[in-house]
Amino acid sequence: MEKVKFLLIEKDTDKVALIDQQLSKRFAYSLVSVVDEKTYVEQLKEYVPDFILANHYTPKTDGKRLVRWRNQIVPNVPFILLTEVVEDDLALEVIKEGASEYIAYEHIVRLAFKVQKLLEQRKLLRERDLAEDRLKKSYKRFQEFVEHDISGDYMEVDDKIVYCNKTVLDIFGFNSIEELNNFNQVNLYDDPEQREEVNSLLRSGKKVVNKELKMRTRTGKPLVIIENAYAELDANGEIKRIQGYLLDITELKNTEASLKESESLFRTLVESSNAGVVIYDQKSFLFSNSVFRKMVGYSEEELLKMHYWDVVHPEFVELTKRRGAERMAGGNPESHYQFKIVGKQGESRWIDFTAGSITFHGKSAAIGTIFDITKLKEAQEELNKFSIIVEQSPLSVMITDMDANIEYVNQAFIENSGYTIEELIGSNPRMLASGETPKEIYTELWKNLTTGIPWKGEFLNKKKSGKKYIDFANIFPVFDENGKIIHYTSIRRDITKEKETELQLSVERIKVEEANRLKTAILTNMSHELRTPLNGILGFSTLISELEDLNEIREMVGYINESGQRLLRTLNLIIDVSRLEAGNFNPKIEQLDLVVITELIINKFKESAQQKGLVLSFDPFEKKCIVESDLKFVTDTLENLLDNSIKYTNEGYIRISINHAERAGKKYKIISVKDTGIGISKENQKLIFEDFQQESVGYGRIYEGTGLGLSIARKYMDLLGGFIELNSEVGKGSEFTIYIPEETKSEK
Prior knowledge:
By secondary structure, this protein is an alpha+beta fold. Mean pLDDT is about 85; it is low at about 695-700.
């Protein structure tokens, strides 16, 4: 049970103990007692009580001042004034100030009852406020009633109303208390005997609780009123004072019949719906249709004993709890959203959920309509992943209709062809033809595709600029669920540079033969680094056309993308080393901040380091480290070193630091990459800086790679006038240090 927080201002400790005793009979509570106005005001702000009890005769203040402070700081908190004896005039004055009740210490035994009454009244007010929202303001008169105050409070002495709020006057159609008393309240009862029943209960010392009365307005309009009241009796047992409150439930009574009538229609509609329907409150499910029960696998009896969040996936419990509580408290949270539920057997389903507020069996509740979107959600997620992979793939992807009109191209296709997407969509791929591809190739291509057989081969095509290039294509038909061809898809790769590389290698075959060991390494490594991803691309792309399962398609596309990236890296390294050997690379000198560059590179490799459980740290000696150098040379060198450290380190850390040094009178900025990897043997520490060299080579080598990274890095540093140092020991790790001159002059 939630504790009620009481704030008491009373200087007499015996009376504090007496009040404590009375409250303990009925409530779980906490009590803060103060003795002066200053402390009282402080506690109103800090303690924020649920209830205030105050002795009118507090030193240096009085009850009216205390009520005014309450009105300013916590205006909605009930306030009971305590007096030594019954003082009607004083009570009326303080109540006019805003006090909820007053009680004399001689009647302190009634304190708990009055507190309970006020708490119930406040609870009822809240419930009626919620009811107004649940009925969606369908009844204008009832809406106005709730907005102002659904409780009509009154005080009666000697059959005369000495106080009532505006709600009482509004209920019965009076403008003032004088009009009400002149009319004689007995005439408001449809059956005068009911008034006598009320008075009889009060004379016997009992309280009137939720008594339903038939009454009428001053003009004779019938009313149904709920009354709650209690009386103070004199020594002879006669009624001295009656205090209570009224609730006009006429409109609610009128709606009960129509609600019962509509319930039957509601059940018929929801049971015939193809959507799941549930009604629930904060305690449990109140209703579920057969569609929803089939989704979760629970019976109607089981659901009636469960909270609605018992079937919500743990990932979404807090979200649904928060929105459900807000909705049932009269708020307006998001009503339409998607989340997962869990069935009786532990299976998860995605649902599309729309919630609303209703009154069900006279209580505030929420209603939800539910559609099972599990298959749609899974398909969307898989298609989104597939789309992203295809769009970001370095391979050119094109989809055409049955007449070979282009329907889709990815970004790589646009960049490779030089045409805009507007120029490509709706066009025929023949726009790429150079006229130099043998006709027999096209004949074979269409013979395969029209019979449902994938085709792969080379075209000599041309870009929009007229530049010719060799296009390696893997083209396959796409079938519908009935086995009918509906599209053609091609995955293409510009292999012009590869062909040029092959030609260059052919021209220099004599040099290769002079270095037989190098030749063996080149053939072995490049065969592995080119054919492995290429076979993956071709093999898995062919398999895609034969698959229907989205999980398998996603896995295949992942292999295609990974292989394409690996192939692209290999080709870029080959091109870079070729340009370096040909002397076509000159530094492009600009001002660089090594700290910024290093941070960007570390962010690029952070995920791959985390996947291996490695600690990747960076320690620059200063916030900025400025050099005059070439951005590509520095970036590629550091990326190669960091990539190698991650590749050859299985546990431990990789630390990158920046510092400065001076060698032979020349100033350098240095970047160190230190790891706890496998290390490099002394005999191989010079070898690894040569082209196509690794500590292990051939198809049986443990680690993948072309053997070009360190060779290119060393050549970059040579062009900049710097160098690379290596300190390594097998089994203990390696430290590569790049020496970059602080100033580098570009060659003209």
